[in-house]
Design a protein that fits this description.
Distance between the termini: 8 Å
CATH architecture of the largest domain: 2-Layer Sandwich
Number of strands: 14
Helix content: 25-40%
Largest sheet: 8 strands, mixed
Structural class: alpha/beta
CATH class of the largest domain: Alpha Beta
Number of helices: 14
Shape: globular
Radius of gyration: 21 Å
Bound molecules: adenosine-5'-diphosphate
Order of helices and strands: EEEEEHEEHHEHHHEEEHHHHHEHHEEH
Length: about 400
């Protein structure tokens, strides 16, 4: 069965088509600068990448190019072969705790939840509508980044603020990267050969979050009401004293929009290092003796270790720690620094095992009390799996 996994941004559309249940990627691609001058798309088929520069005034046009590519490359002979289309949705609020088939009510809910993800949910709605027009017979599903975290108990998702903030304004912890945490925790359980496990999953990319996963279910996660909570990120501050916001607004006259921009786009590794939000640049800076880069890395690692320690206690122990996403999969030094700081828990690095990028493997010594693993994440596959289950 052919299943499409789709991720729509306001000016982009990423896709992968799978043969399911074999989980074979048939074709993948990305449409960029939709609605902006200089638009183009790239397609990867049989290991070969092609780029085409075309006008993409809106998502409908992008979806039409996509279906044309599928047909002209004989990935499918008819659009009816596409049985399922899974859409990645950033915010599901507390309305969705699992992947669902999209009907008009679900679509209206996703639209309403734009309140919580003003950049992402509206783009997903546009994408869903475009695919509905182009491939009306496929079962469309919504796979929510927040769904996996809906099992958190109230004491972990509630903020200690006036009750009305929650009841009237929906202010609570929702978390993010749920599809990734779900994928890597399920894979870790497969490796361990059981599901009654205590796992700490570290999704560390440009954005990052750490989750405590008990028996396959999320117990706690570091991202909060928005993705700007928890660990330090590329250009986001993560957790900090909330009163700094009102203090700085009063001191400088910054508007809410300017403050939002400062906290999300001008903070994190970028602010502390003064040079970049990209961990590769920070690593290069450290090698070149840049003290600010060294400080940024220290703060970054410390905050991650804080969460691992907190979740170790909350879980009452830990069967495995998982590293995933851009930095988790690729930054040898960041993983090593985190693991070395966990020595008090009996965690022991295997430096040569850790000397890899992007492969699944255990990176701790045999006598390490907690094994640490790299598990490359695959959110697209997770979307395809969920969609296959609902479409078959
Ligand atoms: P997101 O999906 O949040 O945008 P990714 O998971 O793709 O982010 O991670 C991107 C980050 O991964 C980059 O900003 C970079 O810091 C880091 N990264 C990627 N490759 C490497 C590498 N080889 N070494 C160190 N860091 C890397």
């Amino acid at each position: 069965m052919k299943v499409l996994s789709v991720n729509c941004g306001s000016s982009s559309l990423k896709f992968q088509m799978y043969e399911m249940p074999e989980e074979k990627v048939l074709i993948s691609g990305v449409f960029e600068r939709i609605g902006i001058d200089g638009s183009f798309y790239t397609i990867k088929l049989n290991g070969e990448k092609t780029k085409k520069e075309v006008a993409l005034p809106n998502h409908d046009v992008a979806v039409n190019y996509l279906t044309e590519e599928l047909l002209s490359n004989h990935v499918i002979e008819s659009l009816d072969e596409i049985k399922g289309i899974g859409h990645r949705i950033v915010a599901g609020g507390d309305k969705f705790d699992k992947t669902v088939v999209i009907d008009d009510k679900v679509l209206a809910d996703i639209d309403y939840l734009s309140l919580l993800a003003p950049l992402h949910n509206p783009a997903a709605v546009v994408g869903i509508k475009a695919f509905r027009k182009a491939v009306p017979n496929a079962v469309a599903t919504a796979v929510f980044d927040t769904a996996f975290h809906q099992t958190m108990p109230k004491e972990n998702y509630l903020y200690p603020v006036p009750e009305e903030w929650y009841t009237k304004y929906s202010v609570r912890r929702y978390g993010a990267h749920g599809t990734s945490h779900k994928y890597v925790s399920a894979r870790m359980n497969e490796i361990l050969g059981r599901t009654d496990t205590k796992l700490i999953t570290c999704h560390i990319g440009n954005g990052g979050s750490i989750s405590a996963v008990l028996n396959g279910k999320c117990l706690n996660t570091s991202m909060g009401f928005t993705p700007n909570a928890g660990i330090i990120m590329g250009s986001r501050c993560g957790d900090m004293d909330a009163t700094i916001v009102t203090y700085m607004m009063e001191q400088t006259g910054m508007s809410p929009k300017e403050m939002d921009n400062a906290l999300n786009k001008q903070s994190g590794l970028l602010a502390v290092s003064g040079i970049s939000s990209d961990s590769r640049d920070i690593e290069d800076g450290i090698k070149a003796g840049n003290a600010k880069c060294a400080l940024a890395q220290k703060m970054f690692v410390n905050r991650i270790v804080d969460f691992i320690a907190k979740y170790y206690v909350e879980l009452g122990g830990c069967d495995a720690i998982v590293f995933t996403a851009g930095i988790g999969e690729n930054s040898i030094s960041t993983r090593a620094e985190i693991i070395e700081k966990l020595a008090v828990l009996g965690v022991k690095l295997d430096a040569s095992a850790n000397d890899v990028r992007g492969v699944e493997r255990c990176i701790t010594a045999k006598d390490s009390k907690i094994p640490c693993w790299i598990i490359p994440t695959d959110e697209e596959l997770m979307i395809a799996r969920d969609t296959y289950e609902l479409a078959k």
